Amino acid sequence: MEVKNLTCIGCPMGCPLEVTMENGEVLSVTGNTCPRGAAYARKEVTNPTRIVTSTVRVVGSTTGAVAVSCKTASDIPKGKIFACVKDIAGVSVEAPVHIGDVVKADVAGTGVDMIATKEVM
Amino acid sequence: MKNYDIVIVGGGPAGLAAANAAYDAGARSILILERDKELGGILNQCIHNGFGLHTFKEELTGPEYAHRFAEKVYKKQIEYKLSTMVMNISPEKVVTAMNREDGLFDIQAKAIVLAMGCRERSRGALNIPGYRPAGIYSAGTAQRLVNIEGFMPGREVVILGSGDIGLIMARRMTLEGAKVKVVAELMPYSGGLKRNIVQCLNDFDIPLKLSHTVVDIEGKERVTGVTIAEVDSHNKPISGTEEHYDCDTLLLSCGLIPENELSRDMGVELNRVTNGPTVNESLETSIPGVFAAGNVLHVHDLVDFVSEEAAAAGRSAAAYVAGGPADGARNDIPVAVEGGPRYTVPCTIDPAKVGDELVVRFRVGGVMKNRFVNVYLDGDRVIHRKRPVMAPGEMEEVKLKRAMFEAHPDLSSICIKVEEA
Question: What's this model's pTM, rounded to 2 decimal places?
Answer without folding.
Answer: 0.94
